[in-house]
Amino acid sequence: MKKLVKPSKISGLVDAPASKSMVQRALAAALLAPEPAAILNVTYSSDAQAALRVIKALGARVTIRDKTVSIEGGMNPTGEVLNCGESGLSMRMFSAVATLWHREITLTGEGSLLTRPVSMIEKPLKELGVTVSSTQGCPPLTVKGPLSGGEAEVDGSVSSQFLTGLLIALPAASRDSCLKVKNLKSTPYIDMTLTLLKSCGIRIENKDYKIFRIKGKQRYRVGEYRVEGDWSGASFLLVAGALGGDIRVTGLDPTSPQADRRIIDALQAAGAAVSLSSATIEIKKQSLSAFDFDATDCPDLFPPLVILACNCAGTTAIKGVERLKYKESNRAAVLQKEFTGLGARIRIEGDIMKIDGTKLTGGTVDSHNDHRIAMAGALSAINAAGEIAITGSDCVAKSYPDFFEDFSAIGGIVHE
Fold this sequence. Notes:
CATH topology of the largest domain: UDP-n-acetylglucosamine1-carboxyvinyl-transferase, Chain
CATH class of the largest domain: Alpha Beta
């Protein structure tokens, strides 16, 4: 599918989508809860649907009504294969959860997920007594439990998602556990997991993100869990306001543990007018200047920040390029290729991406089936000299299926 986006003036009020990361974590917790649970304020992104499919296959009974998912949990798999779609979090998280079962289960996926690394999963699961094998370090991944607890070392240098899976699964194991973690990136994502677990009555001892001690035989109490707004998806809306006029976004928690809440820091550093309250985030366009920003812990902010930087006077430097290799695309290379084609001046120097402020031209952006590239394409049109065509635009369904509708509602001129 192709969307055409014209230069636009941005103004209006929009509600943030629900966090797909928190939806998936909450569904995993509900699967393990002995009493019925209700997950409220769900956005049915492709990744959320993948997690729903997985918990059903693992034995949960699921009822969906509007934005509420009611779940009767309990591990009792109905099949031997779990299809995680293109969700890296579901693949890595449920690879741990599935080992609570005593029979062999294979986790597979689609598209780019089949090339994303899962090698960090194998060693710690084996240390915990689980049989595991991958396909040369990539999915499909086959595991056989039961996971009973113990000690293991986890490498968090590529992703924290498998550590999230262990932190969710091990409280339900029969014995206590101790995880030693090295080279952990994206500690805010672990904060998200720990926040969810605490709300479900699970207690985990965290020693400087290097040692986690987990009591076994804990009982999940999910009850009603309301999913907070997604700072990752909303970052595109907030940058749109800074580029094109003004915007108010509701449903975001300024105190959230989500890593991408730091979009506010970047917008303030660039000179946008930012107003925060517990109910509404308001961003207004002002003169924008180049900024320095470390996105190592929040790599999903690179796409909106690159477009923000193109609209800033001077040269912006964004750190964290190494975190972009194993996304839905090789995101650093794609950002450079696609937006250089619109006149952007982007250089990659080791772990730093440098962007010179310049007016973008009209042209075409190939999404490379990467939802965040497609959304960045829409932002690039706001102040461009001409229309931007975004090919493969339907990939936004992975995280934010209503993105183009919401973008149009705040003044974005979109047609097919």
